[in-house]
Specification:
641 residues; 4-stranded antiparallel β-sheet; mainly beta; single chain; 5-stranded antiparallel β-sheet
């Protein structure tokens, strides 16, 4: 079906910012989705920002909804037209950027059939061919919109990739619909039925200098993509690459640029294809996403893990596409020392490779200006993931790891405590707290240890008289009572002599995980658990349950799993700030204020932790995916010192 929509004049979107913004977003290297060349600049789309990279000065500029007219920080595609105008596909619309002005086209103000723009191709006449997630194919000539759907298309036309060949034909990859060729009027559909090799979905389509069509796709969710080449007559399997160390080095990515330069990567090798031959150019880098040649003949590659690579024919250079010193976008915990320096415990970096070397998790410090990463050269225990952080009254920073024990740092010296050299019941450290006498209480997955600076005492099953010793959270009140959440067994407290278990009306904590415990100036305990979206307050022996507005209360009889509140932080005015899946809340004791990341164009994330510094900035940490967001309703005040 084809229809024509006249585009009325759109007001250009401009964004004005105060001297102190309400939000700041820091992130580590992240998924790269697209790459386009524009004279002396590369435009790089990532899952968290749009990056402009100067190939001469190597300067990086980051664009996101907080400092530009972008409607979303998740960039799906980027293309540059002959006038140097940038066309950017996001999950919230198509964006035109002429270097000064941002214009956003979406379903509500244009003929765009779907706001999620997966691909953009520009033909010789300047028409923009736009592939959307569920709305099919659109053409935009700068004034009018046309929307196209292939005849006899029996399901949603979900476009994953587009490319224009040397004769002006548009090639379209469609999810579960194979590959289409479209000349503006006629369609040819290539499927499993009429080809010997083509699979059902094409996630990547590129065109080489000889006008061959190359496709890559995953069949049935298989990790290893299937590659095919079409010479205009027949489809051929891509099986002539001289891959070493089979089957480990399976083909992982297919890339090309507008000059028809073809690049294929395996797990840790890069091959280029030119004049019908394959050449191995690197055995260092992992999971290349895109390739392009600049005006000086340098070859640039982007990796899935957020790095930009340059190859001048002899030497390689590596550039991080991060706007911070974070080593990972998943953050487990965060705390502030007495100098207002923030200490961040990053999660595992998984498959991330830097210069061909596997990454590992690190604690990081940040004073509002400078980032400092601490790795195994500082302390061997940092080969393991850091799960918890805390600062004692002497400004010593303590780190709990997921198998290497407990680490302390006084600014000069590192100390490591584990089962072999200390009284820890386990080297898996989940929680750290300090009492008024300076004792360190250490929660593990096998009980609790208390350390007075010289001697250790351990509490496990036999002394706790509890069926489970997996400590998830811990806090100590002004009265010296230790409160702890126990995995799957509820809430307990210890006064130094007796252990108590606590029940809450309407919430069965014995079937839940007590995720966080925060104690205010009135010694009230504020508790979150996996039992739905509820906030529990224990004041002495009484308790009260609060529900954020418009959220369905938890009912133990329901089988449905409700998202839960993750953590609580309390500001100087006594307001409670709570983290949840993709949202955070402010609760003043009576009224709730809800903040959604999507309202500000930021990615939806599972917020793990909120911490508040001395200037009232809220530091919002994502357990995975989005790094660190700082928020202050009165304007962020950095640096902290």
């Amino acid at each position: 079906m084809k229809y024509l929509v006249f585009l009325f004049l759109l007001s250009l979107q401009t964004v004005c910012f105060s001297q102190k913004p309400r939000f700041m977003h820091y992130f580590a290297p992240t998924d790269v989705t697209s790459l386009a060349a524009d004279n002396d600049f590369l435009w790089i789309g990532t899952s968290l920002s749009l990056v402009r990279f100067n190939i001469n000065t190597l300067e990086k500029t980051f664009f996101n909804p907080l400092n530009s007219g972008l409607p979303s920080s998740s960039i799906k595609s980027v293309a540059v037209d002959k006038d140097g105008v940038k066309w950017i596909g996001t999950n919230n619309g198509l964006v035109r950027f002429d270097g000064s002005n941002w214009t956003v086209y979406c379903k509500s103000n244009s003929g765009l059939p779907d706001d999620c723009v997966n691909s953009i191709s520009i033909d010789s006449c300047g028409n923009k061919w736009i592939g959307t997630r569920t709305g099919g194919l659109a053409k935009f000539d700068g004034k009018y919109w046309n929307v196209y759907t292939p005849p006899n298309c029996k399901s949603e036309f979900k476009i994953t990739a587009t490319a224009i060949d040397r004769t002006g034909n548009l090639w379209i990859g469609a999810y579960e619909n194979g590959v289409f060729k479209f000349d503006g009027e006629n369609w040819i559909h290539y499927t499993l039925k009429n080809t010997n090799f083509l699979v059902s979905s094409a996630a990547k389509i590129v065109v080489d200098k000889e006008n061959n069509i190359w496709t890559a796709s995953n069949e049935g969710g298989c990790i290893m993509p299937f590659f095919r080449k079409f010479d205009g007559k027949k489809w051929m399997a891509l099986d002539s690459i001289p891959i070493a160390d089979k089957p480990h080095n399976y083909i992982s990515r297919l890339s090309a640029n507008t000059q028809g330069y073809i690049c294929v990567t395996t797990f840790d090798q890069i091959f280029e294809y030119e004049n019908g031959k394959w050449k191995l150019i690197s055995k260092r880098y992992c999971d290349v996403q895109s390739a392009i040649i600049d005006r000086n003949g340098n070859k640039w590659f982007t990796t899935h893990d957020g790095y930009l690579l340059k190859y001048d024919g002899k030497d390689w250079s590596t550039f991080s596409l991060s706007n911070s010193g974070l080593s990972e976008n998943g953050i487990n915990s965060l705390t502030f020392d007495h100098n207002n320096k923030v200490w961040i415990a990053c999660g595992s970096k998984g498959w991330l490779f830097i210069n061909g070397v596997p990454g590992s998790p690190h604690p990081i410090s940040f004073d509002g200006k400078s980032w400092r990463v601490y790795d195994t050269t500082d302390c061997p225990a940092f080969k393991n993931e850091v799960l918890s952080t805390a600062v004692d009254k002497n400004n010593v920073i303590w780190f709990g790891t997921n198998g290497a024990g407990l680490v302390s740092y006084d600014g000069k010296k590192w100390e490591t405590y584990n089962k072999s050299n200390a009284g820890l019941p386990s080297d898996y450290i989940t929680a750290i707290a300090f009492d008024s006498r300076g004792n360190k209480w250490i929660g593990t997955n096998n009980g609790i240890a208390v350390f007075d600076g010289s001697t250790w005492k351990t509490y496990k099953n036999s002394s706790l008289f509890m069926p489970d010793c997996d400590i998830l959270s811990m806090a100590i009140g002004k009265d010296g009572i230790i409160w702890m959440g126990i995995g799957g067994k509820g809430l307990a407290s210890f006064n130094g002599r007796d252990w108590s278990f606590h029940t809450i009306p309407s919430v069965d904590l014995t079937t839940c995980y007590t995720i966080s415990i925060t104690i205010d100036d009135q010694n009230r305990k504020w508790i979150t658990s996996s039992c739905g979206k509820v906030l529990i307050c224990i004041d002495g022996i009484s308790s009260k349950v609060f529900y954020p507005p418009a959220l369905k209360p938890y009912r133990p009889t329901d089988n449905k799993e409700y998202p839960h509140l993750n953590s609580v932080a309390i500001d100087k005015e006594g307001n409670k700030w709570l983290s949840s899946s993709s949202k955070f809340f402010k609760f003043d004791g009576n009224n709730w204020t809800e903040y959604s990341f999507s309202d500000y164009g930021l990615p939806d994330v599972n917020v793990r932790t909120i911490a508040i510094d001395s200037k009232g900035n809220k530091w919002i940490c994502a357990h995975y995916g989005a790094g660190l967001v700082i928020f202050n309703e009165n304007g962020i005040d950095l640096p902290l010192e």
